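The pair is set out directly below:
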Amino acid sequence: MSVPETVDRVLLTAAVVVIIIAGAGLLTRIWRGPSMLDRAISLDVCAALIIAGLGAKSAFARDPFYFPIMLVLAFLGFTGSVGIARFIAVRDRPPGHTRADGPKRTGGDTP
């Protein structure tokens, strides 16, 4: 094995180790919480770690088979994050607001 191939294997192995350590921390954050937003963000990071793991596997095997799968997972992770953010934004809205641009009008002669 040549020197560049050895360096490549060492760096890919280090990347996989970092992904595994991040996954362990991620599972701890999902388990402990404390809020629902923490768990939602952790699930979004979980999607990113899966994509990173597939990228490392693809680089290790020198096979581009997983690239479309990674693209679909990135799209699903993004749409899931946007959906969760909208849900939390609606849930945490102050009681007097019905629209995002201001309080609801109660009537009367003031514009």
User: Anything to note?
Assistant: Residues 3-32 form the longest helix (30 residues). The radius of gyration is 22 Å. The CA atoms of residues 48 and 74 lie 7 Å apart.
